[in-house]
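=== RUN LOG ===
request id: a7f3
mode: sequence -> structure
chains: 1
length: 382
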Amino acid sequence: MALFKKKTSRDESYYMASQWTLMWRKLQKHKLAKFSLVLLLILYLGALFADFIAPYGLEEFSALYKNTAPTKVYWTDEDGNLCRPYVHPLKKTNDRKTFKVVIAEDTSTKYYLDFFVEGIEYKLFGFIPTNVHLYGLVDEEGNPAPRTGSSAGRINIFGADTNGGCIFSRILFGSRVSLTVPFVSAALSFVLGILLGGISGYFGGWVDNVIQRIIEVLSAIPSIPLWMALSAAIPPGISVSAMYLYITIILSFIGWTGLARVVRGKFISLRQEDYVTAARLAGVSDFSIIVRHLVPGFLSYLIVNLTLGIPGSILGETSMSYLGLGMKAPATSWGVLLKETEDLVSVAQYPWRMIPLIFVVITVLAFNFLGDGLRDAADPYK
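=== RESULT ===
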């Protein structure tokens, strides 16, 4: 009897649950989507706390570490016993036989890896002044290792770029652009697609014809020439924040047409439903009918579309910056980092400079897997 009551209670909670509750329950069963959600959360937290996690700032570089491989961390001492992790700084010497400058580790000096090390000053969240970083190098007395000069010690876990800057730090700072511009762009495209597609499908007539002709014109233009044309209109020498805004607008301007077509078709099929007619006869405004009655009818699809649209925007921002149409140095994004690797010879010699590409691929795949999970969860009774 108790088992019957427990089963009945579970069935009632299932069938009385809201659509959002059912979607969440089914999404929790999608292991790949859950893993992707956690991975994306880590990436966005990394972007939020980039100043704290990154050991070096964007303007900190050393010519001595130019194009150097990932720093080797030692875990054993000279006798082979486990010890506190440390690194050797680099030093420059002259080879008397070849008369060439040789850069090698200075084994006579050790800098130890430590957490919560003082470094360059920054403002956490933009208003909390501090100089503490998650990790860094210290000497035997626990003082921060020199950051400049011939005795400078650096730990570049992903290697260094052509200027001697830390690639890992630049990836973290670049994620602020590469993860937020596409998100904002996809959100704006989402709003434009619903708004213009909804107006086109709900009212029809000449309004529908005008909007559809605009969509056809935009869809007929190749993406790269359109990017080039819109980027050419951006004034030269503008600030990073202004460039951020322009890239967001450009990506939004060309990303809403597909969703608008789908929304138009949905509205055409739903506007003749009985509940829409009843709302219209009851004196409900057209705006309320669209927002409160038509859009919720396929809201699950819209959520999935937004999730799957973000990877396209990420690739769009990366492509624009790689082609020199978006962010430019000294600003940093994943596209800017990849643009610095366009020389195949340098890639062959310094393969670690392609590490930003791994972050792009992982992020795009995570959003795609999350979108697949949301798409499966959108039909919770399946």
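=== NOTES ===
The chain has a mean pLDDT of 81.
The longest helix spans residues 167-203.
=== END ===
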